[in-house]
Amino acid sequence: MLSLVRSQHACIERIRSAVRWAKRLVVLVGAPGQGKTVVIQDLVLRTPTNPLCLEGELISDRTDAVLRLVGLVGLRPEGSIHEMLARLQTKHSAGSEQGIPEIIVDDAHCLPDGVLQLFHELTAGAYGRRWSVLLVGEDQLVSRLQALQPMPVLCSVVMLPPWDQQDLEQAGSKIYPSQEWSSIPSSVLQRYGSQPKQLLRLVDEWEDSVASASDLPEHEARVSMVRVSSSWMIGFGLALVVLIAVLIFVQLSDEKTPARTSTPIPLAPNNQ
Question: What is the pLDDT of residues 121-166, one digit of tens each?
Fold first, then answer.
């Protein structure tokens, strides 16, 4: 697992501030493979409390979500959803004052709309006190929350920023200490800044390609000489073919021309 870089640490602080002050549903969004899960894992490891962590792609409906929450704290799944949630919030201590969400749902973009509505209701205090919930997912998660019925969900959104040059140097220097990071084109960083692992692989391959590029002029010179030699040979061959064709044509013309017969010229008689 890659260690966190500067922008990811800053993202954690923004999450803490949103949980502490927003008093509403907090959403962390980022591109696939950008490192959202790594950020959440670091947030959980550094907290004195234990948030209830769920995998969004495994939750099928509202009842399933509540049963999973109840199971995480060791309660028996008895009674209605309201009763289980009431017992759950007396069992689990709040940590939002320290900026730590009580519930963290990874891959929340996979949740059904009904489950998204459930977590919104928890943050709104529909079942007693207000819960602090962090949903982690891709960009479409925000638009889905805003399109929920009967009322759209107003959430506090934290964007995981793509890597910049400082992030690349910080992470890359630990993996490839001898690498020259300043030579990386900005276009590569802009294109793959949201995919850190792929960016690091490309940087490693980039160094090899730059090293091999020094042999390019000599290679191009050899290719040019081969092209000139090939062109000269082709031209010489064409000229030779034309010459042979002309000789054959002349020879055939001589054979078809009839031989000239000599005509005797009579001599005038001498009268002397």
Answer: 999 888 888 889 999 999 999 999 999 988 788 899 999 999 888 8
How far apart are alpha carbons 57 and 134 in whole angstroms? 15
pLDDT in tens, 199-244: 878 776 765 554 444 444 554 455 455 555 666 678 777 878 778 8
Report pLDDT digits (tens) over 79-107.
888 888 888 877 666 666 778 899 999 99
6-161 folds as Rossmann fold (3.40.50)
Q: What is the largest CA-CA distance in the chain?
A: 165
Question: CA-to-CA distance for 32 and 116, rounded, in angstroms?
Answer: 20
* Residue showing tokens 């044509």: 249
CA distances 35 to 73, 192, 193, Å, are: 27, 13, 11
SS3 (DSSP) at 28: strand
Identity of the amino acid at 124: A
Q: What is the DSSP string of 111-175?
A: S-HHHHHHHHHHHHTTTSSPPPEEEEE-THHHHHHHT-SSS----EEEE-PPP-HHHHHHHHHHH
Backbone angles phi, psi at 62, to 5 degrees: -65, -45
Domain ranges of the chain: 6-161, 166-210
Instruction: State the pairing for strand pair 26-29/133-137.
Output: parallel
The CA R_g of the chain, rounded to the nearest whole Å, is: 41
